[in-house]
Each structure stands twice: as C-alpha cells, then as structure tokens.
Amino acid sequence: MEPGGQLTTTTEVDNFPGYPDGIDGPAMMVDLQKQAERFGTEVRIGMVTAVKFATEVGGIHTAVVDGKTTIEANTIIISTGATAKYLNIPSEQRLRGGGVSACAVCDGFFYRGQDVAIVGAGDTAAEEATYLSNICKSVTMLVRRDTMRASKAMQHRVLNTKNIEVLFNTEVDEVLGEQVVEGLRVVNNRTNDKKEIAITGLFIAIGHKPNTDIFKGQLHMDDAGYLITKPDSTKTELPGVFACGDVQDKIYRQAVTAAGSGCMAALDAERYLAEIGVVEEVIAGDYTV
Q: Are 78 and 212 within one domain?
C-alpha cells in the first residue's frame, strides 16, 4: 500500500518541474491529489484484489477492491508502478530516506562532494555509478560476483573512471549509522573477510519489480513482468485498458516521465470513450459526458 507510489518513500524531490526549491516526496503526492480532486476526481483508498477485463470493444471491465467491492468501468488505466528491490537487511530498511536510496538520479544531488557506495552489477548500476562519479568525491561499487552483468561498453566506462572503485565478490553486511548513513560494513563472500567503508550515501541498483502479478494471464508482459503497450501509445492489447508509468517503463523510471505517460493514458482513454459513444466530442480537445 503506497498511495502515491515510490515517491512516498523518498525525501526531497529536486527534478520535478514546478518546484524550484525541491519538495518532500509525500508532500508532493498530497499536492497532486488535491489538484486532481479540484477537477472532481474521487479518491478511494483500497487494494485491488482481482480484475476481469473485457475483450470486446465497448465491454465492461471489473475490479474488485479489498475482496468485496466491485467497480465496473468502460476504461481502466493501470498505473500500479514498480517496487525497487532492496537487500532486506534491517539496517538498510531502517535508514531508507536517511542515506539509503534506490535512485541515484533522484537523490544523488544530496551527496555532492561526498563518498558513496552503490550495489549492483547491471547496466543500471553501471550507469548510476558513472552518474554519481560526476558529482560525488568517490564511488565504491559492490558487485556480488567476480564479474559484472553490464554491457562491455558500460563496464569499460566504469573501470576507467578514476573515482569509481569496484569491489568484486563483495556484499553488504550492515549499513552503519543511527539516524543517517555513516558507513558500510562489507564482506568478501569468498574469504569471509569483513571491512568498513566510510560513506554517507548508499544506492541500491539491483532492479525493480513491476506491480503486475494481478494482471498475469490477462495482459501481455515481458519476461520481467512489465506490461507491453502499443508503440507511441499507452494502449494494451485489450480495448479500453491502458498502462502508464513505471508499470510499463523499465528504461526511464522518473517521476516526470511517469506523469507524462499518465497524461497520455488519460488522453487515450478519453478518445476511446468518444469512439464507443460514452463521451461525445463537441469541440476538438474538449469532451462532455
């Protein structure tokens, strides 16, 4: 239950348009909710426990909330997002928002000129490590195996960046600090040797899990579970069902891109309603029920 998505679990948001001084993530979600409610949006809090999508144009889709309340709709926009994967170490969970982050692009600015570490071995981890190297004093990259999974080009970039140190066969044993991150104890998984690293920020880049389990068997997904939409649209393969944001975007994963695709989904849904006669178009770009 994360009404507002991943931004409810972060602190300062500095890269969303319209907030020149930045804004607290949960506060930003409250602002967006109030703005939507000003135009008549009804917000209900609940867990969708089952869905049944119609397959024909103009069909009625149903969603069951909390196992008891059934909602019928001509269109459904899926914006369930994705959940960042963490290491699930108690000290890591305790310090989320206090120096532990799953988004270097979102939070890296706060660690300008400081020593940080990043966990991961894929292209995303390599890309975020090089991004951090441009603003941080040093970056220690922790790779669980003896090789990286990133592409050769990304590996070359990381290994040839002077202020990035890669520690292979290394895992996090504990995140040090009470209120904020003050260091890291790591362990070599071959020798069991442990050592401490002085850092102020820890970035976890081991992937995301799209929140799509409930749609399995009804909508097309890729191997990682991200919903597949038609090119240049938010349309799924089912009429009247649209997907936007991180639930179908595994590349950009930013608040502003999610908001942009949300706008696309709203327009696609509105045009679909006009096509099936639920909404009558009276002026180009202006619809009335």
A: yes
For the chain, counts of helices (H) and of strands (E): 6, 19
Confidence (pTM): 0.76
Q: Is the Cβ–Cβ distance between 136 and 116 less than 8 Å? A: yes
Q: In terms of Cα–Cα distance, which of 155, 164, 94 is closest to 129?
A: 164
The domain that contains 132 carries what CATH number?
3.50.50.60
Position 42: which residue type? E
Task: Answer whether residue 152 is part of any domain.
Answer: yes
The per-residue pLDDT string of the chain (289 residues; one tens digit each, 9 = 90 and over) reads: 777 888 877 667 888 899 999 898 889 999 999 999 999 999 999 999 999 999 999 999 999 999 999 999 999 999 999 988 999 999 999 999 899 999 888 889 899 999 999 999 998 899 999 999 999 999 999 999 999 999 999 999 999 999 999 999 999 999 999 999 999 999 999 999 999 999 999 999 998 899 999 999 999 999 999 999 999 999 999 999 999 999 999 888 888 999 999 999 999 999 999 999 986 544 444 443 3
Q: How many domains does the chain divide into?
A: 2
User: What is the chain's alpha carbon radius of gyration, rounded to the nearest angstrom?
Assistant: 22
Structural domain of 104: 98-204
Opening angle at CA 197, ends 193 and 198, nearest 5: 160
Residues 70, 131, single domain; the answer is: no
Answer yes or no: is 23 within a domain.
no
Q: How far is CA 13 from the centre of its chain?
A: 14
The residues that are catalytic are 103, 106-107
User: CA of 168: how far to CAs of 87, 121, 139, 205, in Å?
Assistant: 17, 9, 14, 15
